[in-house]
């Protein structure tokens, strides 16, 4: 086994540094009706990552969508200890960014978000790659186990 | 304010708003005429929501601008007869008490613009509730981003929001042209949610400009069209050429060089979309739910005329969601007694999407709402059928799909 490591620059949307195994969705995600905060499982059957666990993982998807209630779902996930470690988007919309910001303010939990990477994160990152997200610097570091 | 000289609650609200403003490169804060908050139904905001409402209340927070409240997670008077669990009701009442303490205006509705929170064109707002945001921006010409839960409370407390997105002139122009190719005299009430659903699905979060909607379109038709658009997509603003306040002419409102994209919608698309809005085509219906967004007095009037002298099949629950104010008018006008005599029930201050409908174990829900059709399969855990209010009533009488 060999390890490869690449670093990609982007924009830090929400501050903090966190790492974990990646969970990649090519589809947009609505937290409301998409994530069950009490279990950390993806519950929207229309998503390919249906049934996956987000707790402690780096969630990678194009953009958030859906209801304005969205941010509270992330806060409830934090409260229940089921929040993702970090988030990477193509472009982060305000509802998701607000959720992560308020996780810091109300629950002292950092969920860094980085977007607008120099490479398409949906292609550069594979599910279960180890990813470190630095929201302060807007940098993502990907480590992949590779069979030699 | 951020430094805390106005108190801890305003400092906390400003911290939230300033940080969001920083992300979206807002140069300043702007004062708002009103706020509207979705921090109201326990089913949606859960224990985190209860904690945050109570935290603001404990800090002594007060809404500094008029702030209206979205529906609660249960009928606040009839919850016992509706068999809402005590443990759920207790959490819901904690939210109610905290919001009362902050001075929230207890309209408990998703249509604040029909209940005294009526902005003027060009006024800045801090609203959440996707269906209300799209109405305020599009029909009233006011300006608000789609705020999310908690941020909406912060806006009401601080009386301001960061100036970005739809607060700026340059971000309010149309991005995609949608031609409605159906003769306007053939457009019925039931077509508007379908048009909204079709547009939302195709344009996502872009700003559509519609042609082919007649000038005499009603407030209720636009309310129901916009709600569907904001549910199947994330539309926060649309224009109707020659109808809505910022779309006096088509050329003025379409952004140059962006609008090569044109979407066409004719009778064929209407029919296809209506089918997409249903998860089932046949079978028994056991729940008819209307009033998403909350029914206006005009819609209740129409429904009463349809139900007059009729009897709803005993296997069907027919619930109409609206506000305390509209309920009172319906009683005075005699609509309530007609509706109740037919076996339907008016419920208030909540709706099918934010109360725990899954406790009743309904199999198939029929509705005249495009927004409800979008969310019912996940939120109510039922199959869903979309139909006109006329078809809902016929189905209710027959006991299975008309």
What is the CATH topology descriptor of the largest domain in chain B?
A: Aconitase, domain 3
- What's the structural domain tally of chain B? 3
**Superfamily (CATH H level) name of the largest domain in chain B:** Aconitase, domain 3
Q: Under CATH, the topology of chain A is which?
A: Glucose Oxidase, domain 1
Number of strands of chain B: 14
Please give the share of residues in helix of chain B: 25-40%
- The backbone outline of chain A, from C-alpha atoms, is globular
Question: What is the CATH class designation of chain A?
Answer: Alpha Beta
Query: What count of structural domains of chain A?
Result: 1
Order of helices and strands of chain B: HEEHEHEHHEEHEHEHEHEHEHHEEHEH
Uncertain residue segments of chain A: none
Largest interface, chains and sizes: A-B, 30 and 38 residues
How would you characterize the largest beta sheet of chain B? 5 strands, parallel
Class by SSE composition of chain B: alpha/beta
- Secondary structural class of chain A: alpha/beta
Distance between the termini of chain A: 5 Å
What gross morphology of chain B would you assign?
Answer: globular
Number of strands of chain A: 10
- Show unreliable segments of chain B: none
Q: Secondary structure elements and their pairing?
A:
The complex is a heterodimer of chains A (148) and B (402).
Chain A: E1 2-9, E2 11-14, E3 17-24, E4 35-36, E5 41-42, E6 58-61, H1 70-79, E7 86-89, H2 94-107, E8 113-115, H3 121-124, E9 130-134, E10 139-146
Parallel strand pairs in A: 3-6, 6-7, 7-8
Antiparallel strand pairs in A: 1-10, 2-8, 3-9, 4-5, 9-10
Chain B: H1 8-23, E1 29-31, E2 35-37, H2 42-58, E3 67-69, H3 86-102, E4 126-127, H4 130-138, H5 151-158, E5 160-162, E6 176-180, H6 191-203, E7 208-211, H7 219-232, E8 239-240, H8 250-253, E9 262-265, H9 267-276, E10 287-290, H10 297-307, E11 317-322, H11 324-333, H12 335-342, E12 345-348, E13 364-367, H13 370-379, E14 383-386, H14 389-398
Parallel strand pairs in B: 2-3, 2-4, 6-7, 6-9, 7-8, 10-11, 10-13, 11-12, 13-14
Antiparallel strand pairs in B: 1-5
């Amino acid at each position: 086994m060999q390890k490869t490591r690449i670093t990609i620059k982007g924009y830090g949307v929400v501050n903090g540094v966190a790492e974990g195994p990646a969970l990649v969705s090519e589809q947009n995600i609505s937290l409301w009706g998409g994530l069950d905060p009490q279990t950390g499982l993806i519950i929207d059957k229309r998503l390919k990552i249906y049934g996956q666990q987000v707790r402690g993982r780096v969630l990678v998807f194009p953009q958030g969508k859906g209801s304005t209630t969205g941010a509270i779902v992330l806060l409830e996930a934090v409260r229940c200890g089921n929040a993702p470690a970090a988030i990477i988007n193509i472009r982060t919309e305000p509802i998701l960014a607000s959720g992560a910001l308020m996780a810091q303010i109300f629950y002292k939990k950092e969920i860094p978000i980085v977007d607008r990477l120099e490479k398409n994160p949906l292609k550069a990152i594979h599910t279960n790659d180890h990813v470190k997200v630095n929201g302060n610097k807007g940098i993502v570091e990907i480590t992949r186990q590779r069979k030699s | 304010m951020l430094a805390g000289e106005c108190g801890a609650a305003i400092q906390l609200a400003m911290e939230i708003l300033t940080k969001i403003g920083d992300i979206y490169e807002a140069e300043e804060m702007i004062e708002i005429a009103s706020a509207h908050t979705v921090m109201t139904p326990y089913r949606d905001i859960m224990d985190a929501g209860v904690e945050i409402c109570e935290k603001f209340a404990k800090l002594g927070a007060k809404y500094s601008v008029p702030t209206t409240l979205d529906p609660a997670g249960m009928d606040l008077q009839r919850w016992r007869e509706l068999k809402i669990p005590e443990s759920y009701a207790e959490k819901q009442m904690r939210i109610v008490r905290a919001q009362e303490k902050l001075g929230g205006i207890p309209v408990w509705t998703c249509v604040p613009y029909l209940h005294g929170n009526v902005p003027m064109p060009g006024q800045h707002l801090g609203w959440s509730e996707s269906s209300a945001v799209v109405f305020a921006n599009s029909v009233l010409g006011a300006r608000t981003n789609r705020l999310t839960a908690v941020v909406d409370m912060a806006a009401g407390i601080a009386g301001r929001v960061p100036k970005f997105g739809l607060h700026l002139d340059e971000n309010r122009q149309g991005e995609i042209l949608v031609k409605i190719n159906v003769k306007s005299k053939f457009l019925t009430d039931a077509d508007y949610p379908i048009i909204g659903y079709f547009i939302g699905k195709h344009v996502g979060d872009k700003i559509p400009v519609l042609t082919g909607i007649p000038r005499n379109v009603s407030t209720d038709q636009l309310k129901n069209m916009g709600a569907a658009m904001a549910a199947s997509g994330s539309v926060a603003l649309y224009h109707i050429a020659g109808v809505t306040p910022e779309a006096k002419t088509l050329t003025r409102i379409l952004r140059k060089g962006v609008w090569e994209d044109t979407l066409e919608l004719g009778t064929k698309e209407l029919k296809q979309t209506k089918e997409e809005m249903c998860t089932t085509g046949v079978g028994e219906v056991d729940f008819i739910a209307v009033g998403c967004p909350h029914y206006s007095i005009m819609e209740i009037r129409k429904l009463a005329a349809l139900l007059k002298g009729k009897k709803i099949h005993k296997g069907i629950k027919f619930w109409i969601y609206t506000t305390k104010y509209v309920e009172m008018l319906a009683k005075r006008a005699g609509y309530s007694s007609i509706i109740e005599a037919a076996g339907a029930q008016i419920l208030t201050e909540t709706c099918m999407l934010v109360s725990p409908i899954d406790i009743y174990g309904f199999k198939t829900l029929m509705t005249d709402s495009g927004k409800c059709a979008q969310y019912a399969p996940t939120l109510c855990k039922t199959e869903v059928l979309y139909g006109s209010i006329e078809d809902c009533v016929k189905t209710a009488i027959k006991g299975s799909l008309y």
